[in-house]
Write the structure tokens for this entry.
Amino acid sequence: MFTRSVSRRWFVNTIGAVFVILVVFIAALSSMVQSSTYTGIESALTGRMDELLNWLSGTSGGYETSEFAAITRDYVEHSFQDKSKMEIMALNKDGRIFITSTGFEPDRKQPMPDYILALKSPDSSGKWVGELETGEKVMAITRVVRDEEGRLVGSIRYMVSLERTDQQTLLVIAALVVAGLFIMLLLTLSGVYFIRSILVPVRQVSQSARQIAQGDFEVRIEKARDDEIGQLCDSINDMAGELGAAERMKNEFISSVSHELRTPLTAIKGWAETLRAGADPATEARGMDVIIRESERLSGLVEELLDFSRLQNGSMQLISERLDILAELDEAVYLFTERARTEGKELVYEENAAFAPVYGDRNRLKQVFVNIIDNALKYTDAGGSVTVSSRVGPEQVQVIVSDTGCGIPAEHLPNVKKKFYKANQLVRGSGIGLAVADEIIAMHGGSLTIKSVESQGTTVTITLPSAPGA
């Protein structure tokens, strides 16, 4: 699990990168410390060397062979004060050590690469850092002394042990390593805390998402912080709520459609059996009327479902032409005149004599008018009224359908145009009529708006752009 986790990627990418940076930084800083220390020691040795050479020059007025050995011996034995810190050696012109500040017989087997370099160097000086035969690490600087004619007089060699310096450098490096490890520890602890604060809710989101995928839309994620992760938890919770609502609407839609299909089929089947058994002409005519009416109702429901399916998959095609939209409205109102009278409702049509050309699909627009008027009559009780009117402007045409029915509660109003949504489950219908009507009007470049007050009525306004050149 760890090899595929975010924790591993964070550890490898962040901690690994920081570790490499710290290693490079500590190595570079350690090298700088050692280099700076060695440079300081070299400067100190060079300064003491110049001091001695100046002293020699001031004493004898020049570097003379006859006086070099005596003056150097006198300096080493009486004037040199740093015998505990460094060693000074004096060499004759043959390269043999004739005096050393330690007071012991010099070890003439020890290598002196700095002396060889000084003999060959244009500035008569040489430096060597290395180990003696005893294993001790030292730095040695040799300066060759010549007389005024350039003849070799002798050499002076300063040598200092680097053991203590290296120990101090190692202590500095150790301190840097400890500081680096401390930084890594702090970074790791803070990173683990940060990663846990992300991974724990992410795992909860993942688990909840699996539950939602399995159909449990009641699951909710507890939000710990009001940050991006908290916003993700809110989004998942909102999604679960929306899916739950959609699932409920789908189930209600299936139940409603099943009922809507069963009712006309039951009537058709019942009257068909009655007619097959034989009936008088009056009963037969009545039965045929019921069968035709219920068949038309069934056909309309199936067509509504097909339209919805076409809209969902984007296969609905409009057969557009220039037409008088109010003429289509006249026909739609006429279809409901007899029904309104039969149901004891008043259908008021405020006819508009103006010419209202629009560019659209004649049958689809008429379908919208039929759907809206049908809804208005369904939700209006006997004794109520439905009013259909229109307004024609220079750029748009509006059709207004108002009723005095039960109205739509405020909490349902924003959702009534959603697919499968039914504000009133007691009234017949599939719950997709308004969704289809809204989509058809949108395809014509118009809008369908609904205003409603509960127990007072509903007003639906359809707005369509006028045809060019109207």
